[in-house]
Amino acid sequence: MLMREFITDYFKREQWEVVEAENGRLALEIFGQTTVDLIVLDIMMPEMDGWSVCRRIREKSDVPIIIITARAEDDDQLMGFELGADEYVTKPLSPRVLVARATALMKRTEGTIGSEGDLLVYGNLLVNRMAHTVSVAGEPINLSPKEYDLLLFLTKHYGKVLSCEYILDAVWGYDYLGDLRTVDTISKN
């Protein structure tokens, strides 16, 4: 049994819907035709290696990517992260751990980003980054520019605990001289 088939079977046993590709070119073709929430990508694939596939996917999408490989050197891992991988798992691997990492990654990235990179969808919340609009369950939400920036920042850091100081620095800027409670009391004006 091939590693791909073994991993596919394990994900299916854990109730994941799986689409598989036997080579890099087919993976890109399937990705272009199918909506996927997560990619598990082996570096050593025939026809097109995983590095190239990862690079091409990142040109179009922010879908979470887990790279699996036998290459454990720091330079290889760094290359994976530089290309946009979210996780890097070395072989031999435990399929239980791989599924656990995939589950954790999906929880952290709960939303999906549209193929153009302009739409963020989190449940019934829709943020259109190109139009700077927000809606919940189809109803438009009016936000001040700073509220919009804060919402965008929080969606990018979904599932992470962040200090008020960190949020202030990132959204209001390092030179902000106001009250630290601003994050708690942002105005609806």
Write structural notes for this entry.
The structure is a single chain. With about 190 residues, the protein is of the alpha/beta class. The protein folds into 2 domains: about 5-110, Rossmann fold; about 120-185, Orthogonal Bundle (Arc Repressor Mutant, subunit A). It contains 7 helices and 8 strands. It has helices spanning about 5-15, 25-35, 50-60, 75-80, 95-110, 145-155, 165-170; strands at about 40, 65-70, 85-90, 110-115, 120, 125-130, 135, 140. Strands 4-5-6-7-8 form a 5-stranded antiparallel β-sheet, covered by helices on one side. A 3-stranded parallel β-sheet has the order 1-2-3, with helices on both faces.
In short:
The protein is of the alpha/beta class. 39% of the residues lie in helices and 16% in strands.
The neighbouring-strand order within the major sheet is 4-5-6-7-8
Q: Total number of helical segments?
A: 7
Q: What is the share of helical residues?
A: 25-40%
Q: Mean pLDDT score, rounded? A: 79
The total count of strands amounts to: 8
Uncertain runs are 111-116
Question: What is the CATH topology assignment of the largest domain?
Answer: Rossmann fold
Structural class: alpha/beta
Q: CATH homologous superfamily of the largest domain, by name?
A: Response regulator
How many discrete structural domains? Answer: 2
β-strand amount: 15-25%
Shape verdict: globular
